[in-house]
Amino acid sequence: MNENLRRDEAALRSSLLTIASYEVHLDLREAADPEVAGFLSRSTVTFSCDAPGSETFMDFIADEVHRVTLNGTDLDPAVVVDGARITLPDLAADNVVTITGTALYSRSGEGMHRFTDPADGQTYLYTQYEPADARRVFANFEQPDLKAAFTFSVSAPADWLVASNGAEATREDGGEGSRVWQFAPTERISTYITTILAGPYFAATDHWSGTMSDGSTLEIPLGLYCRASLAEAFDTDTIFDVTKRGLEYFHSRFEYPYPFGKYEQAFVPEYNLGAMENPGLVTFTEAYIFRSKATHDQYEARANTILHEMAHMWFGDLVTMFWWDDLWLKESFADYMGALAVAEATGSATSWVSFANRRKAWAYLQDQLPSTHPITADIVDLEAAKQNFDGITYAKGASVLKQLVAYAGSEAFFEAARAYFRTHAFGNTRLTDLLSALSDATGQDMTAWAQQWLQTSGVPLLSAEVEVDDDGAYRAVVIHQEATDPVTGAAALRPHQLRLGLYSFAAGALVRTGAVDVRIDGAATDVPELVGVVQPDLLLINDDDLTYAKISFDERSLATLLGSVGCLEEPLARAVCQAALWSNTRDAALSAAAYVGAVQLAAPGESGVGALQVMLRNAHHAVEHYSPADEREVLRERLFSFVVEGLHAAEPASDLQLVWARAAAALGLHSNTHSGWFRELLGGKQSVTGLAVDPELRWLLWQALAAQGQASGAELEAELDRDRTAAGKAGFTRASTSVPDAAIKEKAWQEAVFGTRLSNELLSATIAGFAEGPAELRAPYVDRYFAEIGRVWDAMGIEMASRIVRGLFPGSQDLTPGEAAEEHRVVLAADNWLTTYQSSPAALRRIVLEERDHLLRSLHAQGKVA
Questions:
Q1: Coil, helix or strand at residue 661
Q2: 337: Cβ contacts below 8 Å, ≥ 6 apart
């Protein structure tokens, strides 16, 4: 109750209060006992009030509040505690409040997460708070603009490692085999980026030193943490190297010294996010510790995340948005800076290719959903904030920043950033504050640019209208822009600084023969620079991927792509073209069979590991969701045979070989014609030269076999005995629930929808397994799904409820010949639920709307004639 803080409530509270400091003590001494559900939490807050005599409230999601003391007076918890809020009446000008209670350990990854390692039985704790889960651990004023200095102390078993944002100040004997850790006060930061790490973690240390602009030397202690059972796989030297390169890069670029003392990074189990930018102690998913062979793409993705979080030390931690409307002020910038730093600090030649293939593709998808919103969103409450950590806020925002750099220049962008940090250090900002810095740096008013790019929704479509004379030269080239804001229905034409690439065949390859930089403004823009130029085989709008837009090809260019996309030599050009073809497929402008054909042309010659992985994954999705049901089996076998050929043709032991192998295993989830081959790989009777069938690949193969009813429970248990790890347990859970048996599906449904036993990661594995196998086994659950999701949302925290509502949506459906997509049974059921439950929480409705849209898109595509 009262967990969903509204924006207006937060604004009123911040208009009254200034928070000076917190002193927080947590007693974690009994955390290793699974029978102990919670821990003692004591929070002392010093703050001032601009309107003495008024009242306010603090936030605390506790099992029980034991004591509330305000300015020396005890308040009755039975009177002042109302759900997640604690009323503080009759405030003085200067106040001290102490709140003591029992907080609960979490299995959902929210608050204080507790994990027992199946490898050795050890217990590990870590915290995760964004956007508002610090209140699950200690009482506080939970909103980003009420910053304060935090001093943490922790009681824990003496043989544990304990860390927090600040450096360890003291460590004293706590009696009975425990110790008390005291940490140095933090700078003024927001509640959601405070953190505690506790458990028998493995630790590695290093340091970085850099020369500041004034000639002084800055020394930053470095640390890395992971579970003890993963220490052997923990490549600390590589991670330290990326970290040092990042610190060197950002200090050079931002000209503002890292302000938070030490820089530690912890890789933790069952993490809900890729990472979190807690200053002084960044937390990451331990999926970034590679137990099995990892590809260049995986290492690059990890480096991107490390540098993304490091950029947050400035964008987000040093300078923080007032409220979640301006979440983009940290996430868009960190997403852009992560890709830029991987390219410039680590020297990766594929960083922007990966950005185009993954991040931008995510943005295009999100921006075409009914839930799309401007980059500067209207976030009315915390539930809306939780849902807004999406492809718009991250990837579209980063794409628009890349366009901003092309539009205004790199030096102006960084000069604006430097001024922004200097002016607003340890404070909070809004859009207008950044625009002021940008306007000063560029010498032009950026208000119109911001309105067009940041305050409207939707993906622009750019197309080329060409006229060619009898000699094959351009008589005219016009770039058309179509853009409508799907939220308002109004035109949303934007300025674009982009590059037109001219590509023609030479010695069997498509090579760039010229390029023209153009500023697009309005619905139609002439390109006089191309008049008289011989028409190339491919005219590529948005060459080098400088702007954010879908692109449509002229007739000659499209024919070139569909017949020769694999001949493009330039990796980023290939990525832009592949993204365009995939968009056309999702829009039902290109059939699934035609898209698979384009992949068959491009994939064998693709040298980029990430690009190949995206192509094969998209092709698989196209077959299973976008192809007509009566054509699917033929197309599925065609794709599988192609992938196996690619596997055998790949260089032994190469990253590309591993991508082909994982793609083959994934395809096996939907076909039992190759189960014998999978078994031979698992048993060592069949080998592919250079291919290591390591734990990750083994579980992919077992999951494929299980989904086809070709793996027994005893075999899966035996595989789990081989791999008694957290990843092994998740792999086993998914495989076990993939088995096409009605009783197994029912058990999985009961566990997911009604149970409380599963952690966040095992819940997701259960849901993923439930979703595999014949559609007829899941048909009885359509009505049950819509009957239960309201109860699930009310009964569970938003993290677990979101996983259930999204993961169990019955979206893998086929279009019956002659049936209209909008008349499909599941679409009608979703429509009925949305109509009947119009007052249901907006975040819940958003998930249903999005999943309905994904289903409609697949049904429309299935009706596309090849």
A1: helix
A2: 250, 307, 308, 311, 315
pLDDT digits (tens, 9 = 90+) for 571-617: 999 999 999 999 999 999 999 999 999 999 999 999 999 999 999 99
How far CA 407 is from CA of 376, 446, 519, 540, in Å, comes to 20, 11, 8, 19
Q: Which residues are catalytic?
A: 309
- Measured N-to-C along each axis, helices 781-795 and 842-862 cross at an angle, to the nearest 10 degrees, of 150
The burial class, CB within 10 Å (0-12 / 13-18 / 19+), for 611 is buried
Burial class (CB in 10 A: 0-12, 13-18, 19+), 232: exposed
Distance CA 230, CA 286 (A): 9
- Left (φ > 0), alpha (ψ -120 to 50) or beta: where does 250 sit? alpha
In this structure, the strands spanning 85-88 and 196-199 are unpaired
Q: What is the pLDDT of residues 729-773, one digit of tens each?
A: 999 999 999 999 999 999 999 999 999 999 999 999 999 999 998
Determine the angle formed by the axes of helices 695-707 and 655-667, rounding to 10 degrees.
20
pTM of the entire structure? Answer: 0.95
Distance of CA 380 to the CA centre of its chain: 22
Rounded CA-CA distance 537/491 in Å is 32
CB 228 within 8 A of CB 725: no
Q: Identify the CA nearest to 274 among candidates 402, 399, 394.
A: 394
The answer, yes or no, to whether the previous bond of 486 is cis (omega within 30 of 0) is: no
217 bridge partner residues = 211
Q: Distance (Å, rounded) from C-alpha 795 to C-alpha 780?
A: 23
